[in-house]
Each structure stands twice: as C-alpha cells, then as structure tokens.
Amino acid sequence: MGKIRQKVNLFDFHTIRWRITLVILVVIIFHIATILWITRQVHINATQAALEKVKGDLQMGEALLDAHYPGDWMLENGKLCKGNVCMNNNNLIVDKIGRMTGNTCTVFQGDVRIATNIMRDGSRAIGTKVSKEVAQVVLGEGREYWGEAEVVGIKYQTAYKPIKDSAGKNIGIFYMGANKQYVDSLFRNCLWNVGATFYLNLLMIVSVVWVLTKSLVRPVRELVHSANRLARGDLDTKIVVKAQDEIGYIAKAIERMRKERKRSEEKLRSAHQQLLNIIEFLPDATFVIDQDRRVIAWNRAVEEMSGVGKEEIIGKGDYAYAKAFYNEARPILIDLFFFDYPEIRGKYNYIKNKEKTLFAEIFFPERGDEEGTYWWATASPLFNDEGKLVGAIESIRDITEQKVNEKRLEYLATHDSLTSIPNRFFLEETLKRAVARAKRGRKSALLLIDLDNFKMVNDTLGHDAGDRLLLSLTGILRNNLREEDFLARLGGDEFAVLLEGAAAEEAMVVAEKLRRVIDESELCLVMYRSCFNVSLSIGITLVEGDMPPSRILALADTALYKAKEGGRNRIAFLRNGEDETSHFSETNQMVTLIKGALKENRFVLYFQPVVSIEGGHIIHYEVLVRMKDTEGELIFPNRFIPVAERFGLMPQIDRWVVESSLKVLARSPDKKLFINLSGVSLGDEDLLQFIKQAVGENNIDPSRIGFEITETAAVKDLSRAENWISELRKIGCRFSLDDFGIGFSSFYYLKILPVDYIKIDGSFIRNVHQENTHSALVQAINTVAQTLSKKTVAEFVENEEDLKKLQELKVDYAQGYYLGRPEPEECGDAPGSKKPLKDH
User: Which residue spans traverse the membrane (predicted)?
Assistant: First the structure.
C-alpha cells in the first residue's frame, strides 16, 4: 500500500510537540518566579542593610553629641539643653553628623523638631512634628523605634531614640534616617540586569524547542500513525519509519508485532469457528457473550428451550439473552463476571463459585406444570492470552425431573407411607433442632401417644381395618393440634407430638384434650359396620438443651409405659432426672387416699350459684366435691377424679355425692341443687334405683334436684343415656348438658337428649366481649337452644364486660367467680352465697 500522509494539527494538545512546549513553559514560568524572588530578596536585603546602617549611625551621632556637648539632657527655660548648650536651632551638630553619615539627622524637643538638616522648600524643617505613631512608641512608651517611616512627606529608613533627663523622663527624640529613594534606585538597577539575563535564557530555550521538535516529534508522529492503523485492525500495511535512533528500533519492534498478531488472528478465527461448531451441538442449552455482553453464540438446545432463534439474537446486547428466558432485560448469572449485582443472588436458590466457574440452581414457578421448573446453570469467564476478560459462556440444563425424584425420595425417607405424616427419622431430626432452640431458652414438650387395645381391631377385623382406624385417628389428632405442632407416626399404633414452645402445664392441657376427644368419641369404620370406643395412653417429657434426642425419646417412652401400666387411657409426665418410679407410687398413694376418704367420710361438698342474667337472682347451685387427705388438706377434683375413673372408684364417689346432696336438700328446703355425674355412672341402673328410693324416703321435691352430665359422656351410649335421663325426669328431676360445644358435639343430639339446660363450655365465654368468633358461637348455641325450648347457662363468667355481652346475646343464666365462688355449706348464711346482681 502507498504511503499515507497524515495531516498535522498544530492545536492537537496531546502531541509530543505540545508536551515539550508545555515543559518549556513550565521552565520559563519557574525561571520568572525565581528571578522575581531573587529581586524581591535583593530589595529586602537592601532595605535591611539601610536600616542596620541607620541604627549604627544613630549610635555614632550620640557619641558625637556627647563629645561636643558633655553633660545631661535637660529642659531649661522651656528649651532643650545638652549640658550647658541649648540645642534649639543648634544646627551645626546635626549638619556635621549628616555629613559624616550621609543621612538626615534631627533633634526633637518633645515631638517638635528644634534642630535638623532636613531641608524643605529651601529652609530647614524646624517646628514640624514627628508622626503620632512614632511619638507614642518613643515618647509615650520610652522605646526605640526603627523601620520605614515618612518624614516630612518622604519615606526613610529611620531610627528614633528617646532623649531622657537625669530623672529618666522622656523629654525629646534623637533621630537618624536614610532616604528610601536610594534603596529603590539600587533595586531598579538590579531588576534591569535580571531582565536582560532572562531574555537571553528565553531565546536559548526557544531555540532548543525548535531543534527538538524538528528532530524528534516528526518521526514520533509517523510512528503513532502507524500504531493507530495497527490498533484499528489494519494488519496488512507495513510499518516504516526512517529514523535510525531509538524511535526506529521501536518502529521495527511494532512491525514484528504486526506480523506475529496477524498470524494469531488467523489462528484465533480458526479456533473460534471450531468453538462455535462444538457449542452448536452441545446437549445443554448454551450461549456465549463478548466483553460488551453481545450474544455471539446461541446453540440449537438454547433455541429449543427459549423459543428464540439465532437470527433474532446474534449480535444483540442490552441483556437480550435474559429477555429470551425472563421476558425482561435484567442481569443473570453470566453477568456476575462483569459487575457485582447483589439482586442476582436473590433470584437463585443456590450459587457456588468454584475455580472461577459459577454454579446455580433456579426455580421457575410460572413455567411447566403446577410444580414449576428447575434449571441448573453453569457459567464460566472467557479470557484472551493476556488474561483479559473478553466474554463469558453459560449452559443451562432442565433438572425438573431430577428435583421431583429427589423430593419424592426425601418425602418417602421422612414420612409414614400409610398416614403421610412425618416418621421416626423426621421426628429425630426435628428433635435435634428443638434441642438447639432449647439451648437458646425456647423449650418444647414431647408427647408419645399409644392407641390402647389396637391389637384387638387387627385381630378381629384384620390389618386393613386397623389401617383405616389409624387414618381416622391421624385426622382427629391433626384437627385438635395447632398448625405449628409436629405430628409423627413412629410405627404401629404409636404416635408422637412435638409442641414447640410449650411448658409442662400447656403440654398437660393438650394431652388431656387429645385423651378426652378419643375417649369420649367413637371411631367408626363404615365398610365394616363397626364403631370402636378406643382410648389413648400418653407419655410426656420436656425438651431441654442438655439432652440428646435419644434421651428425650427414652423419657417419653418411660412416661408412656407408666401411663399404660397405671390403667391405660391416662397421661403420665416425667422430667429429666426425676425418679422414674415416683409416678407409680403417686398413683398408688392417690388410690389409697380415695379409698380411705370413702371409708372415713373425708369428702366435702362445695356449692357454686347459677344466676339469672336478666333478674340477678340465684336459680340453683351446682354441687362440687373436694377430698381431704389424712392431714385435713383439701385435694381438688382434677387430681383424684381421673385416678378414681381409671381404677373404677368413681361410682362410689358419685353415690356419696348424691346421698350427701339429698341430706343438704332435706336441711335446706329453699335450696335447689344440680349434682355432677361422671360418665361411668350415667346409665348405672343401681344408681338410678338408689336416687329414686332416696328422694322418696327423704320426702324431697324432685324438682329441687338436677343432674349435670357431659355432652360426650351422654353421646357415648346415647340410647342408654336417653332412657336413664327419661326415668328421672318422669319423677320430676331436671338435667343439664355440661361442656356443650367441645369434642364431637352436634346440635343433632339436642333433639334426642331430654335435658332442660345447656351449659356452654367456658372456653367460649372467657373474653366473649372481645372475641367475635366466640360471640358468634355463643349466639348460635343460644338460638338453637331456645328453638328447642331449652335454657342456656354460661360458665366461667369472670368479669362484668363478659356478663353484659351475655345479656346482649340473651343467654339465660350465668355461673362464674364474678357471680360467686364455690363455698362449703357452713360458710355464710347459705352455700355459695353471694349477693345477687340486682343491676343486671
């Protein structure tokens, strides 16, 4: 190719010419600054020298004065004298000092010149004054003054010294001054000499610049132009620079680089084509971008996955590759090689960086079937021979089927195949996390649950029936637990419940709820036309931070064993470190106490009033029972009644309560009592006959006697309970259905059971004025009861707000601590006495 002439731009400030010129300008500026500084220093030094001379001349003048006129300075007859000589208009001495020093000399009386060699307008400046500033320093403060000062309109380098009399009083001033014009003249002469020197130096510098520009800049410019052609990709034009110096050596090196680069470019194009051929047939969806993040490769697999063809995307940037997958322009995994995008990491389930390669998993809920689509992405950077990032490659694989299989295997490994709830392995892993949380102060409780007599179902109806029974039981347990509670099947008929954040008392409440629900219900298998009255035995322990899961399970298992050994259908609680035999001894002690109380008449009746909400008067009392131990301390029903029920002692206690209540009625003809009957006594024919006989023998009006039975106990054997209740209602006794609304309650039974009152369970009454759900349930129960001509009683009324809310809901009666606490018969003037509410 022919030689191309390059146009020279004189105002291209990036050229070497201008760089050299800039350096020269800096040198010139520095040179000028140096000259100015030297000149200034000369001026300062000349001024200082003049000042020093004036100081010395002042001392010499004082010596001449003392030599010519010995004696002290004094004021005599209003004139200034030196010894015996009057100094006023004595100009001989100041003229003499002036001739010897070449300076001006003046004697002041006070601040007025009385002798001076300073001439102004052809006469001496006698009678003029020193400046106020100088007078203040010299006369006022008694100090010497020297420096530049204006004397009769002309600037001098001056020295002033106070004249003192023999008493030390400042009476005048002795002055010596050098004319500043002399100093300025010296300075101007010096400045002309420096200027001439600067001019010669500048001429020499300009000559050097011209020579350097001529011999250096032109070949450099030619070299730059050749390098620019090479940079633009012109690998065919030969680089020629005629210079034989270092610039020529550089030109030859660049020419060799051009030849080497041309060969490399040819190899790179060949390798690039091979890479594109390999990428095209990769099984994974793969694409490549360059350093500007434009797509340069897009294989067949990625076309199929994204639905975007090569012709639509090759050469495009602005996150075109992201739009193909996400329908929006945004950074994705491959972009992390170019910038750190924090928002990218939130888009992926998993990102790992290994040896500069990124691995990531991403889930698309909007793609594929209902379970979504999982992708596994791999991205790697691309570098050139110099290690510069020139692009990146990303491959994507659909791993949805793999993830689904993994989840299925994980589910099978952690869940029971029959009930689909977690299994023992899942429980143990969950216990480990619960132990870790317990170390941080959040305790939990573990319940082990066993279905009593489950073997009988398997033996009589077969294992298929047993499986259906377990499925029904699982559903019941789930419905009576919170969403956050963990339910697992350990095998056979054994289940576990982990109560997160629960203390011992809460765990006991939940366990008792589960036991009661199963105990008071029937599990029916329709296809086998059978219903079973089954029960649960439950063992409880607490999860603590210093206990391994195996120890927690062992403790709960021991507690379960104790529950079953204690008679089944019961709950046992065991703490870590607690004597494992203590629960058996406690139960045996309670059985002994109950039997002793029956023999020794150590049961006590308590009475709690039931009040009309509208009228505020007491309609009857509920009879409650307490037991005294051998020391006379009261034991409440929640401790001895569960033991009495499990060991068959409850019918005897019920008989004692009925008999004692009838005696109270005989003593108090104005009282009406409702007696609680346990589930095991309801339907007892012997007890039925005993009640009929005792009422007749004591001549008691049967309408004064009522019985409270629980809803679940009545439903357990509905036909028998119905007959039993009907027999007593025939003689005039009344009945109340207690705890209505819990367990397996149904409004259907209200049409069958011949009861007079419905006692709404207290769990719906507490804070009914705040809980809208409870209010709605209470209103529904009350409406149904009124439709069936039955009265309603609200339990656990503990504040005025709840009572007012019940009045709004038109509930008939109320009972609770706000209206009257349970009291024995001997307290006050009547059992459970409390002043009736007259304002409600």
Answer: 20-38, 190-212
